[in-house]
Structures are given as structure tokens and as C-alpha cells.
Amino acid sequence: MPGRPTVLFLCPDNGALSLMAEAVALHRHPDLRPFSAAAATPGQVDPALVAALEAESIPADGLSAKPAGVFLLSGAPRLDVVVALGEASRRAIRRQPFLGLLRLETWGLAEVVRSLPAPARRTAYRRLLPDIAAAIARLEERIALRLSGVAA
């Protein structure tokens, strides 16, 4: 892993949790090179997520839903770690052989129910934010240990 380790965060549609993880990592973890993608079919970015991030002074501009397959394209970044943000994402990504060969972690984060009203989703995202931030910090520590040669 020369340079900054590249991390890909996955959720089923890349419309919320994986984007949140990408935004938090970009904002608070300059030693990581984070990306996000859909483990299944890309959906729409949840405006309630954008509002929740902005309320926490985490930039949300430029976040977009995209399929994991873009990381197969020529010129795509080499991935060091893939993080499935839930069991559904892990199962979906295991069907894509190129990602199944990479270092894969699964985090058991609760999905925010999209049928909830926007204010309730914003609140749910803001409640998940400390969990995602802590998980990213632990991931960064494990990567640093692995790079230093200490067993993680």
C-alpha cells in the first residue's frame, strides 16, 4: 500500500451509508483515500443524508451514487480495502469476483429506512455518524498497524 491506502465503502445503492462513510473519511482522515459505490444497483443520493452531513459541517458536495463496477475500468484506483456496510452489501459484492478477491470487511451498520419522512432520516443519519466515524478511525488504525508490520 504505497501512499495513502485506498478504501471503498459499499452499501446496496450507494445513496446513503457508503456516501456518509466516504464524506466522513474525506473530511476527517486525510491519510486515507476513500471512495464509495453501490454493491448492487446505484440509487439516488438521499437529500436527508446531505442535510445531515451539512448540519455536522461535513462537506457533501460531489457525492454521487455509482456502481462498484467503475473500479474495474482502466485508470480506476487500486483498492486496498473494501468495506461492506452491512450483510446485504457483503452478499451482493461477493457476486462480483474482482472485489471478492480483495481484503473485505463487513460492518454491521443499520440501514436508514428510506420510507421515513426526511426529518426522521436526517436524525437517523446524524445518530449513525459517530458509529461510522469510530469505525473509520479503527480501520485507519488497523491499516497503520498492518503497514508497520504489526499483526492487526
Could you describe the 3D structure shown?
- The chain is α/β, with parallel strands linked by helices.
- 42% of the residues lie in helices and 12% in strands.
- The chain is built from five helices and four strands; from the N terminus they run E-H-E-H-E-H-H-E-H.
- The longest helix is centred in the last third of the chain and has 31 residues, at 118-148.
- It is globular.
- The two termini are 15 Å apart.
Quick structural gist:
With 152 residues, the protein is of the alpha/beta class. The chain contains 5 helices and 4 strands; from the N terminus they run βαβαβααβα. The protein is globular, with a radius of gyration of 15 Å.
Describe the main β-sheet briefly.
4 strands, parallel
Helix tally equals 5
- Unreliable stretches covering 5 or more consecutive residues: none
Strand order in the sheet with the most strands: 2-1-3-4
Question: What share of residues are in beta strands?
Answer: 5-15%
Mean pLDDT: 88
Compute the separation of the termini in Å: 15 Å
Oligomerization state: single chain
Gross morphology: globular
- Please give the number of β-strands: 4
Q: Decide which structural class fits the backbone.
A: alpha/beta
- Portion in helices: 40-55%
* Element string (H = helix, E = strand): EHEHEHHEH
